[in-house]
Amino acid sequence: MYMKKKIIFSTAFAALMMLASCGTVSNTTPTTETTQTYEVNPVEVKSEVLNIKDALSLFDNKDLAPELAKKYGYKLEKDVNIHNLDNYKTMLYKNCLLGKKSKAGNYADLPKPQKKGVSSYIGITTSTVEVGVFNDKAYQSLIDQIKQAGFQLTQDGNEQEYNNGKYSLNCYAPGRRVIIQKAL
Fold it and tell me: What 3-state class would DSSP assign to 148?
């Protein structure tokens, strides 16, 4: 009997509290719509890795490869065919080792980073320029340079695509690669 009274009293008290809260007045202030603005912070470009501006120049004029290799300290290798990936007309690499070369003349994989310095490579084909780095900070610097250069994100996902009407840059975060090609 005591439990039954306790349950009835608790239910009545909860109902009374709900009714009492319905009549309260709350003061509100009108809200104004605000638009979000984004500030583009200048990116500190590291001279150890080819910057996006020079990569775009290299895309337009593949003959700049020896000059840029010297400027940034890259080693240059001609006709690098990576098994099941791509056939690069020219490969620039820094603080990396090229993969094992098979008897057929193909390389087993993309360049592998060494422990010293910022490792990166630039693969040049007839229709693309691929910039690959091996650490997140260098990759994020490339992405920030792309945004700072006025490229717009046109496709988001596993591979992000940035476009400015002339160039299309596909950024693959898991592989830390940026592939430059003509915009469609």
Answer: helix
> Tokens 């620039």 label which residue?
92
Q: In this structure, what DSSP letter does residue 23 have?
A: T
Residue 107 β-bridge partners: 82, 101
CA distances in angstroms from 80 to 3, 41, 89, 93, 134, listed in the order given? 84, 37, 6, 11, 19
Buried b / exposed e along 97-115 (16+ C-beta atoms within 10 A)? ebbeeeeeebbeebbebee
Q: Where are the alpha helices (DSSP H) in 42-175?
A: 52-60, 65-72, 136-148
pLDDT category of residue 125 using cuts at 50, 70 and 90: very high
Full-model pTM: 0.72
